[in-house]
Automatic annotation (TrEMBL):
Identification of the protein by name: Uncharacterized protein
Classification of source organism: Bacteria, Pseudomonadati, Pseudomonadota, Alphaproteobacteria, Rhodobacterales
Length: 138
């Protein structure tokens, strides 16, 4: 069982993770997890646990995990945006085909304000890109 387990375990937290070194090479053959650090993914801070000094291997593993985690979170952000586009399309279809007047009264102003805010920001960002010549591919 020990050969199948990684040397490190990262317990994901809201802004990062708690880092544990996994040990199966002990007398009882039990899995022991020794917390060695806490990571803040937003600012890149790594705090060793207690008076511990992290080894180069520890730091290397932590940095590799942080890079993978940031890539995963970035991909999730893009997936969320694609889902938002789908929701907008589904909402449009609902408004056209199913929504009652009472339902529309309850959501129209909120939707219009949110869409106006989004549209204004998208137009401004696109104009900035066009002015700097970065939007040539579109």
């Amino acid at each position: 069982m020990g050969a199948d387990l990684p040397d490190y375990y990262f317990r994901v937290r809201e802004n990062g993770a708690a880092v544990f070194r996994v040990d199966t090479e002990n007398r009882q053959r039990r899995i022991e997890m020794d917390q060695i650090a806490v990571i803040n993914i937003k600012n890149g801070e790594v705090k060793p646990q207690g008076d511990r000094v992290l080894s180069e291997v520890d730091i290397s593993q932590i940095e590799a995990w942080m890079a993978q985690r940031m890539a995963l979170l970035a991909q999730r952000d893009i997936d969320d945006i694609h889902r938002a586009v789908d929701y907008l399309n589904i909402t449009t279809q609902w408004v056209q085909s199913k929504a009652s007047d009472e339902q529309l009264i309850g959501i129209t102003d909120d939707l219009l304000l949110a869409m106006h805010d989004l549209r204004s920001l998208l137009v401004r960002k696109k104009a900035d890109r066009l002015m700097s010549g970065q939007d040539a591919a579109e």
